[in-house]
Amino acid sequence: MSRRSAPPHPVLSAFYGEAEARPEFVRSIFDRTARHYDRINNVFSFGSGRWYRGQMLKQAGLKSGDQVLDVATGTGLVAREAARIAGMRNVIGLDMSTGMLAECRRHLPIGLVQADAQHLPLADGSVDFISMGYALRHVTDLRATFTSFRRVLKPGGRLLILEISRAENRFAQVALRFYLGRIVPAFSGVAASTDSRTLMRYYWDTIAACVSPEEIMENMRETGLKNVRCETMFGIFRAYMANVP
Fold first, then answer.
1. Does the pLDDT of residue 61 top 80, yes or no?
2. What does the alpha-carbon distance between residue 156 and residue 23 come to, in Å, rounded to a whole number?
3. Cα-based distances in Å from 110 to 70, 106, 127, 176, 197
4. Which pLDDT score is estimated for 188?
5. How much is the average pLDDT of 143-167?
6. According to the model, what pLDDT value does residue 193 have?
């Protein structure tokens, strides 16, 4: 199995100077914006709210009693829907941001762990299901992340990664760039904080610069995940699914 690095996007020099600085920037910006995140999310997540998260979890195979790890859990939006299906005691939320974990703890009584996606502090083959909501663009290395996921999933375990990508239609991409690249950052700065505006500018830049869905799926396959597939909604919302053999 190849060990070459597979970043989700190039270095974004407007926010950090080199690849090694990416994790600290990501951790810091999410720490500083955690208390505003749900408010911002309500603005930019059109069509990808509670119903969508729940439907995709079920479609990926989540069922009652499954042991779930929600990676990059943030304020717990995906974990909350996973708990409705699998049971509250069966869900663990993991995030690298202490600020996000604190917000999640306020709203959701699940187990929480501080760590990053590439270094999951769980035993091999210990969970039935891994979910990750809109955070794949923030990891350092896609291959290392998928390898980590595969390691902790049980044989037959299932994976769901929700993401947002560039629009398939050129005119839709222009509209998306205007909305997420300008409107949402401007609104976030007024309604939340200056750091929230920076976060949403970064959010858009990671979407614009991210590798293609095909490359994401190829990296999933090359790390040993099987039955890799992607469901698309509105041409921008992606639900990557896979299984461990």
1. yes
2. 31
3. 10, 10, 15, 34, 30
4. 56
5. 96
6. 67
Environment class of 235 (CB within 10 Å of its CB; exposed 0-12, middle 13-18, buried 19+): middle
Between 198 and 25, the higher pLDDT residue: 25
Non-local CB neighbours of 65 within 8 Å, separated by 6+ positions: 86, 87, 90
pTM: 0.92
C-alpha to C-alpha distances, 238 to 31, 138, 165, 183, 217, nearest whole angstrom: 26, 16, 7, 22, 11
DSSP-assigned letters across all residues of the chain: -------SS---TTT-SSGGGHHHHHHHHHHHHGGGHHHHHHHH-TT-SHHHHHHHHHHTT--TT--EEEET-TTTHHHHHHHHHH-GGGEEEEES-HHHHHHHHHH--SEEEE--TTS--S-TT-EEEEEEES-GGGSS-HHHHHHHHHHHEEEEEEEEEEEE---SSHHHHHHHHHIIIIIHHHHHHHHT-HHHHHHHHHHHHHHHHPPPHHHHHHHHHHTT-EEEEEEEETTTEEEEEEE--
Structure tokens, 136:
């794949």
Give the mean pLDDT of 98-116.
96
CA distance 196 to 90: 32
Distance from C-alpha of 207 to C-alpha of 44, rounded to nearest angstrom = 13
Amino acid residing at 57: L
Residue count of the chain: 245
Span 188-203, pLDDT tens digits: 555 456 888 888 889 8
d(CA 181, CA 207): 10
